[in-house]
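[step 3/7] fold_predict: job queued, chain A
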Amino acid sequence: MREIVAGAPAGSLLSKSIIRLGGFHLLMSYLGAIGYLMSGSGLKELLSTIYAPLSVEKMMQGLAFARAVRGHLLATASLATVILEVVQLTEDEVDCIKNMTMSFMDEQSSLLELNQNTHLKALSEKFGAAMELLSSKGPTEQLWVQYFKMVSLMKEYIHAERSGDFNAYLECVRRMIPYFHAAGHFPYAKSCHLYIQDMEKLHEKLSPEEYHKFVNDSYFTMR
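[step 4/7] structure written:
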């Protein structure tokens, strides 16, 4: 499709078209990359305690999308519990996290307010340091820390897509490229490279008003 638009006569309606990379299928391919990179790690057996073995096969390939997302979220929640044991939180920090969680669940706090919370930032720094510590202990720990980061990237991508954060969305696509290469998903790796190049030149195709709406007013995603 991109080649068709590039070959369209200059000034025609088709030449002004903007090709978007399919967000859903991009994420399916990324989930398949996670499954490929985690093959033989025990993740398949872990997910098989919740889902049927045949379902897990499809989840590892990124095909059973909803189940794959849910399964990875459950697996990383368990990993987070293990990592938090290394963090050694104080009682005040634990109480602060509980209060923030309850406040967010009751819709009394926005995500922006949580991100600006100093206690949460301190916890995030401690959590990151704990992951680096675990990662330095050996290849097995390093693999599971990498898995945690891959799933975290998946969550960031979904949030960026649904909230309409264009810059965060592009950054997530950029960070997915090495995983596509590592898993042998070369068509998607190539498409992501070209897509990012096209998006960086978006201001050349859109008027200033349209560009502002597309980038800053969440017009790049459909609701």
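[step 5/7] annotate
The radius of gyration is 20 Å.
The chain has twelve helices and no strands.
exit 0
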